[in-house]
């Protein structure tokens, strides 16, 4: 499913970055992708995906 329609970033891409690259926060995702750089509507959903992919993300935010 696409999370960021503006830049074509999917939930699979976010999960892959989290699991394979160890990225555990939105700042890290934004450094690797254009997530949230246009309309910003995707950031909330991306945070939810991170929280379910990496449970420790809940404690860090």
Automatic annotation (TrEMBL):
Cofactors: [2Fe-2S] cluster
UniProt key word Transport: yes
Gene Ontology MF: a single term: metal ion binding
Keyword Chloroplast in annotation: no
A matching Pfam family: Fer2_BFD
InterPro entries with a match to the protein in the record: BFD-associated_ferredoxin, BFD-like_2Fe2S-bd_dom, BFD-like_2Fe2S-bd_dom_sf
Alphabetically ordered keywords of this record: 2Fe-2S, Electron transport, Iron, Iron-sulfur, Metal-binding, Transport
Domain BFD-like [2Fe-2S]-binding: 2-51
PANTHER family tied to this protein: BACTERIOFERRITIN-ASSOCIATED FERREDOXIN
Family statement drawn from the similarity comment of this UniProt entry: Belongs to the Bfd family.
Name of the molecule in the record: Bacterioferritin-associated ferredoxin
Organism, as annotated: Vibrio cincinnatiensis DSM 19608
């Amino acid at each position: 499913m696409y999370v960021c329609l503006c830049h074509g970033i999917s939930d699979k891409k976010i999960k892959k970055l989290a699991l394979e690259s160890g990225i555990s926060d939105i700042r890290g995702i934004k450094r690797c992708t254009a997530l949230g750089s246009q309309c910003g509507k995707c950031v909330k959903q991306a945070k939810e995906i991170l929280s379910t992919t990496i449970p420790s993300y809940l404690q860090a935010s």
